[in-house]
Amino acid sequence: MVSSVDLIQFLKNSEGRNLKGLNRLKTVYRPYICPFDQILELIPLQSRVFDLGCGSGSLLSLINHFRKPEKLGGIEISEVLVNNAKQLLASANIPVSIYKYDGVNLPDEIADYNVVTMIDVFHHIPKDIQPNFFKQLYDKMPANSVLVFKDIDAASPFVYTNKLHDMLLAGEIGNEWGAGKLSAKLKESGFECSETKYKHMLVYPHYTILARKP
């Protein structure tokens, strides 16, 4: 198992070396506050991985190096972050498809991937869209594919630290769900949830759910 220090060293010396300022800090040092090491363990080698809300591409870059995927895809609502992610993955020797997302309609392209990742994205989705989001995702994913989902645990009092974080860096306050409520919604949408992991990093309470579409 790779450590957070290993992940930061990789991002610092390779994909993150050309990024500047805040973009570099958020990309290179995110493994200190996000359990990427735990997430990578749940992604099979040589998978086809699609990242919902890929941000600046940190996770996709780590997957490319440590999990040796067949191809990578991702969507993000910010054009700036899409360009950052493309820059990080420019040297990948596999097909990579990253593009801007309209925030509403999930792409049919998801059907071409057997692993979907969704990391710290759900609490940013508008509150009125959240209840039906997983049914839409379930319908887009192919049979026997898996979802690796990670978010901040609303059941922890430290959720308010994340709300402050989002207000300062994203100018918004998210709507986090607890792990139990989220798992129940996944099952209601048709997924089978096989594993839930918890990890507290600095002041951030994380949970990761591994779910499968039969």
CATH architecture: 3-Layer(aba) Sandwich
The description of the largest β-sheet is: 7 strands, mixed
Write down the overall mean pLDDT.
93
* Radius of gyration, whole Å: 16 Å
- Determine the fraction of residues in helical runs and give it as a percent range: 25-40%
CA-CA gap between termini: 28 Å
**What amount of the residues lies in strands?**
15-25%
The fourth-level CATH homologous superfamily is Vaccinia Virus protein VP39
The total count of strands amounts to: 7
* Order of helical and strand elements: HHHEHEHEEHEHHEE
CATH class membership: Alpha Beta
Low-confidence stretches: none
Biggest sheet strand line-up: 3-2-1-4-5-7-6
Count of alpha/pi helices: 8
User: How many separate structural domains?
Assistant: 1
CATH topology: Rossmann fold
Structure classification: alpha/beta
How does the overall form come out from the CA principal axes? globular
Describe the structure.
This protein is α/β, with parallel strands linked by helices and 214 residues long. The protein has a seven-stranded mixed sheet with strand order 3-2-1-4-5-7-6, with helices on both faces. The protein has one domain (35-213): Rossmann fold. It has helices at 4-13, 21-28, 36-41, 58-66, 79-88, 130-140, 159-170, 179-188; strands at 48-52, 71-76, 96-100, 115-119, 145-152, 192-201, 204-213.
